[in-house]
């Protein structure tokens, strides 16, 4: 920053623009020599009053013989690295950016070379097909039942006969109805329908639902 601009900035901060204008000559002379003399005298008086020269002492330190230019350069680099650390230590994005600059790592991530885009897309699609095939082969009903039983055992602490009862209820319980020969098929179907309705009413009162898709009749 030039010295004149620095002095002007300091005077503006200290006095303000209005006070500084009042200190300047309000009626400048018409003669050029008198104008230059007025300019020099006015500015010198303002600077001597508000920005006078001050004597500062300089402490001379003897230079040690081992402090050479190589050590100075290393010290400058160390201070530069410290300033970078202070600026980026609390910001992860800036920290990673500074790390990549130090190790000269490129920001771009190039994909592996492929002969054709269609070949690349086809190779990626193979992974999606594998996932789709695995999901098709899984029985979601059994999977959810196993997860539920494992959660009841590990998280809720249900063990023993109670856990076995829940397992039989979810997996192996089977209910069938075989009418006797003394009654006709229509009466047997009607009786079965009434029985199922009673079960559904009982389950609805207990806030349970019956899966109609898993009911079979022969």
Give the topology, please.
Layout lengths: L2 H13 L1 H7 L8 H19 L18 H20 L3 H11 L14 H21 L2 H15 L5 H13 L12 H21 L13
Q: What's this model, at a glance?
A:
By secondary structure, the protein is mostly helical.
What does this protein structure show overall?
The protein is mainly alpha-helical. The chain is elongated and about 140 Å long.
Uncertain residue ranges: none
The general outline is elongated
Strand content: under 5%
Number of strands: 0
Largest sheet: none
Radius of gyration: 46 Å
Provide the helix percentage. 55-70%
Distinctive features:
mainly alpha; 218 residues
């Amino acid at each position: 920053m030039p010295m004149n601009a620095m002095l002007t900035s300091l005077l503006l901060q200290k006095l303000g623009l209005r006070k500084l204008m009042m200190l300047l000559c309000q009626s400048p002379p018409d003669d050029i020599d008198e104008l230059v003399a007025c300019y020099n005298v006015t500015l010198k008086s303002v600077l001597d009053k508000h920005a006078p020269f001050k004597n500062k002492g300089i402490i001379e330190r003897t230079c040690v013989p081992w402090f050479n230019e190589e050590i100075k350069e290393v010290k400058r680099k160390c201070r530069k690295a410290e300033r970078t650390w202070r600026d980026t230590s609390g910001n992860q994005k800036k920290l990673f950016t500074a790390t990549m600059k130090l190790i000269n790592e490129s920001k771009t991530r190039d994909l592996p070379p492929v002969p054709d885009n269609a070949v690349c897309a086809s190779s990626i699609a193979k992974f999606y097909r594998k996932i789709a095939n695995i999901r098709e082969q899984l029985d979601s009903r059994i999977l959810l039942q196993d997860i539920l039983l494992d959660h009841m055992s590990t998280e809720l602490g249900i063990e023993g006969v109670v856990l076995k009862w829940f397992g039989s209820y979810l997996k192996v319980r089977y209910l069938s109805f075989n009418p006797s020969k003394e009654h006709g098929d229509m009466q047997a179907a009607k009786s079965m329908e009434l029985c199922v309705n009673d079960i559904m009413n009982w389950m609805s009162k207990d806030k349970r639902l019956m899966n109609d898709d898993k009911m079979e009749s022969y």
